Amino acid sequence: MATTLRWAFLEYQVAGRSQFVKNRALRQFMKPLLNLQGEERILDVGCGFGAFGKLIQPLLGPKATLIGIDIDPIQVAYGNQHWARRPNMRLEVGDAAHINYPDGSFDLVSAMGLLEFVDATAVLPEMQRVLRRPGKLVVMQVDSAHYEQCPQDTFFKQFWEAYLEGMRQLGIDLELATFQAYSKRAGWVLEEFTLNIEYRVRITNEFLAMVEIARWTQLQNERYMRQLFEFNYQFVKHVGWSADQLWDFLNRQYTPETYLRFLRAHLGEDFYQKTPLRMYRVLF
Questions:
Q1: pLDDT (tens digit, 9 = 90+) per residue, 80-99?
Q2: CATH number given to 10-141+171-197+274-283
Q3: pTM, whole model, 2 decimals?
Q4: Which residues have a Cβ under 8 Å from the Cβ of 273 and sit 6 or more positions away?
């Protein structure tokens, strides 16, 4: 992909990835897919600041090793300082298309939320090259195109449609079509698994009080809001959204008065979110 995206928004990312790491259901979902025996060498390609490593760390045996590589030195440094402080886990600066390890170095190679944003045809041969036999290749995709939220919010719906269309116009492979086509040409037997991470809560006055506190906390963090704006603007500007239009949306979504007014109109209903995750496994 020719377009360079900006991902080094640490406050913005940590907030979301922390929930990822805390998700016990996701760890239990991954456990039989990874099927770790206790002494594996694992490579996480495009590791960011190591959220996947921290998520599966309880599944690692005492002799297992997990190495993460990422092209962004800022995230690698942050991850080593805050996330990967374990003797069997470390992060390194590295290029997914030119992995600096010999052939057959790892028992399991993973890519979590990476192949959508890179040239998968350059990364996948490298992942296969450093994988020993027998070994496992595991890929995870956050299926943003099928994210659901209820009650329906007109402003959020308009933003989300623009966000997805902007990603597609930038060449981001939301369906992992390149990965699937490469797998078919290579003769890989691709196993697919799906987990829906769901959040459901009754909209009550207690829920509104919790939302109000959370929204004020975010609004008071100017750096977080600036990162939130910059991250999303790199997508929605390609479908005609102006900076003012995005700020107007963020103010509507994050200003407590406006958002709480919307929720109060739905008192007694369920607030629901669903994020589908797809995992693919290849056994060699």
A1: 987 766 778 999 999 999 99
A2: 3.40.50.150
A3: 0.86
A4: 147, 148, 149, 198, 199, 200
